[in-house]
Amino acid sequence: MELGGEAIFTQFPNIEAALRAIYPEHPWESIKFLEMAGQVWKGYWRDVRNQKEFLEQIAPKLGIKQVNLLRLILKIIQILTHLYSILVIGLVQSIKEKHRAARR
Fold first, then answer.
1. Three-state SS across the chain?
2. Mean pLDDT of all residues belonging to the chain
3. What pLDDT score was predicted for residue 3?
4. How much is the pLDDT for 60?
5. Cβ-based neighbours of 41, under 8 Å, separated by 6 or more
6. Distance of alpha carbon 21 from alpha carbon 15, whole angstroms
7. How do the domains of the chain map onto residue ranges?
8. Cα–Cα distance between 73 and 59 in angstroms, integer?
9. What is the pTM (predicted TM-score) of this model?
């Protein structure tokens, strides 16, 4: 950032977003950025595009050739993500209620 590169992060949330905007014609692979960082950002897997891109990249490695199977896996992931969200919301509400009751 010695040459003033930090300004780019006022316009983009991360380096991947910046590169995608600057070079939209390049077939960027989000998973490569994640591998470099060693983590994913909050909400990454909720984005269906990220799920689809990951499945499309990993399918050949797993020997999956049918698009219908990929769609089924994607739908299962969506359902599990939704169920997880419901579970977490319920858990948070339960903790809040117990906390309120304990304060009385």
1. CCCCHHHHHHCCCCHHHHHHHHCCCCCCCHHHHHHHHCCCCCCHHHCHHHHHHHHHHHHHHHCCCCHHHHHHHHHHHHHHHHHHHHHHHHHHHHHHHHHHHHHC
2. 76
3. 55
4. 80
5. 13, 14
6. 10
7. 12-103
8. 10
9. 0.36
